[in-house]
Prior knowledge:
The protein has helices spanning about 45-50, 85-90, 110-120, 125-135, 155-165, 185-200, 210-215, 235-240, 245-255; strands spanning about 5-15, 20-30, 35, 60-65, 65-70, 70-75, 75-80, 95, 170-175, 205, 220-225, 230-235. The protein is α/β, with parallel strands linked by helices. About 35% of the residues are buried.
Amino acid sequence: MPAPIIKIDAISKSFGTFKVLDGLSMQVMPGEKLALIGPSGSGKTTILRILMTLEKIDGGHIQVDGEQLYHMERNGQLLPADERHLARMRQKIGMVFQLFNLFPHKCVMDNVTLAPMLTKGVARAAAEKRAMELLDMVGLADKAKAMPAQLSGGQKQRVAIARALALSPKIMLFDEVTSALDPELVEEVLNVMRKLAAETDMTMLLVTHEMGFAHDFADRVLFFDRGRIVEEGKPDEIFRHPKQERTQSFLKKIIAAGHRV
């Protein structure tokens, strides 16, 4: 068996007096497609932000690709990671956010090429060649010179996916990437993610309320509540035959709201 590409060991995270994660442990295998589901405030997005080093942990340890994320080994001791270590580790992970986070004053091409040029020293010609390949993959090669304001929400999100892929990460994180979109634009973004899942061996973690997509996309589903994993299993097990009462009540509400599972 290969080693886990992500290993989370007893991490905790609080915002003020609110404990979002409480001694959470979990593992993700290389190439695994993992869906994180659960009610708002259950800690799903916080996990992604912690992996992206946008939020720091209060306790515990995380390993990514065999290395400590928030700690460095020095003379046999684990010390808090410095910014240089965090920046290097961050290059292993790409994240696509709910609200796109494109640079509004830069065209699509510049949005996709900026990070490889700045963080990896990629030459402009090589960065633009790779950017065009990625924009073609997400169906937006004809929008390379467009400004974000000229794009629909679905197009912005597809540019955001191309931008995250431009750094060639080993792990991709998707945080509610369709929740800010009009319903008719959701499918075009999900199609890109389906293509990624089918055509690459990239490890992918997905936080979503699109239960039908989570069922089709994931190798494994984790149901979160109050900072803990309540239930986990294959999509059919979780969505068709959930064992825990909390999972059952959550899915009943989702179905009652008209969502496919």
